[in-house]
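In the laboratory, one determines a bound structure by crystallizing the protein with its ligand and collecting diffraction data. In a computational setting the workflow is compressed into a single prediction: the sequence and the ligand go in, and a structural description comes out. We illustrate the idea with fructose -6-phosphate.
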Amino acid sequence: MCGIVAFTGTIDAVDVLLGGLRRLEYRGYDSAGVALVPRANELICVRRKGKVAQLAAALGRETAAPGREAPVAPTSSSAPAPAGTTGIGHTRWATHGVPSEANAHPHRDCSGKLAVVHNGIIENHTALRAELVAAGHTFASQTDTEVAAHLIEHYYQGNLAEAVRQALQRLSGSFALAAVHAAHPDRIVVTRNDAPLVLGSCAYGALAASDTPALLEHTRDVIYLGDRDLAVLHADGRVECYDPAGSHYVPTQVRVEWSLEQAERGGYPDFMLKEIHEQPRVLRDTISGRFAVENPGLVFEELPFSDRDFANLDRIQVIACGTSYHAGLIGRNLIEAWARLPVDVEVASEFRYRDPIVTPRTLVIAISQSGETADTLEAVKLARRAGAFVVGLTNVVGSRITLEANAVIYIKANLEVAVAATKSFLGQVAMLTLLALHLGYHRGFLSTAQVSEIYADIQKLPAQIEEILADTTAIERCAEACKDAQTVLFIGRGVGATTCYEGALKLKEISYLHAEAFSAGEIKHGPIALIDPDGLDDPTKATPVVVVAAQSATYDKTLANIEEVIARGARVVALATAGDKRIAELTERVISIPPVRECLSPILASVPLQLFARAIACARGCDVDQPRNLAKSVTVE
Ligand code: F6R
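The predicted complex, in structure-token form:
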């Protein structure tokens, strides 16, 4: 997803912009660019297809490495000549127009004096472009963003903020914008609607960015701009904010506690591995403080519900996308089992375009690690209009979902940099597990003793994950046996099937190897045809089938499925409970997880599947942190 950085101040802007863009790389992008005002009435625009490193080279700079010290004002005569102290930067994730230098941001107006960077989608760009072309404007790209540059030019009469304000009234869609003008080398104007933008100021200037990590080197006190608000960043560090009616207001600053080290790899070869290894910590943080000895129900102060409110619910609707959707599927099994409440789980992109049945007695749980997913946010708005109480489950403080939902439950994953969700997924599943216990207890279906017993088993999970992480030899061996396959199938039953859905998504998104998950009971109804019978004679042709076969109520049936696929020529990788001799007799490729209660098994079983996907992706030479075509926050439909 596109990333914006803007800086105006008293030090060289290029390093600040490049450093910020590096910190936004995790969002996924295909081109990058900056516009700088080196002196009054001059605007330089440099753009490159590819990575920020290529842009840095074009600017004659080393890319600032994440984690370096905050820049200080140049004091000696040996300091590089500044390329201006005001500029805007951008990483683009193509939506309108192919990835190319011409479509890369910033985009300029006809005069070449005004430049704009943008994240999101301007929905009425076609009509506006036609209008501006008719008025004599010349366009140089296929992007919706360029419309904003020409529209601001259209209204510009010497006051940039006023021109942006007028243009803003004509724009529909979700967008965050930053605009700079050669005539105003000491300011930047920013605005947003339904797209993220965080502002801040420091001793040497004022900044804005699409996400907090890009500001952390410079400030820890940030401002979240409201929808259709406008802000003027001044080189002396002032940030002037205006509401949609144009009234000036003093913004509230929020202190961010995340350290810069949290954004670094911490000695691991990639963020994904680091984040997989952080999962025991995530679980401990998630669990901590949720159980009160004197009150055997769990502590969910975020939920303003009495027992009567809980009893009055007639169903739960979970809405989410991708990995968060899979967390929802796991949550459904637990809530239905423990709280005896029907749960529907639906991908937000479908939910919002149906005419779903949502009433004031429906509890909606919207899951989004980023809190910025456009489809999920729209689904939340729809549910609220229907009178439902919406609980947002997210990892990002101050994200959009926290503003749209009635109540917010934060998972404790902290900043997740790798595009593929790992620790945030585990945090979501763990939180849904606790929530299911809470609902079960307050609806009278779980006794105090049952809650305590399950909770005691949840507390064992972090150490059990550490056990899995301590020896990954079997996982790597199994990955080696599957890395050259055309397709990998995943099968399981019950919560094992939901674990498989996530395992297959992880594999396909980071290794580009086709993977598909099925409920094991369904394979003979179609998918078993995918198993290549040549595998019976030639092991190199055997189709890999990953079977989640931990101890469960359906264990024997899963074993029968293993025999079934082996008989058709499959190469089985089994994820089984440690010490399982029956599985060992069927396949030599076994990945073990510690013994665990069936309902909690997805939390353990997901970890080896994450490592399995990563090992295959690394063996295939893929960039596991920034898989192609994917973005960390999907802020457009
Ligand atoms: C996959 C992944 C995506 C996200 C999906 C929803 O690893 O991360 O499938 O889960 O794009 O994102 P959030 O949770 O931010 O709403």
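Residues 448-470 form the longest helix (23 residues). Keep in mind that any predicted model is a hypothesis to be tested, not a measurement.
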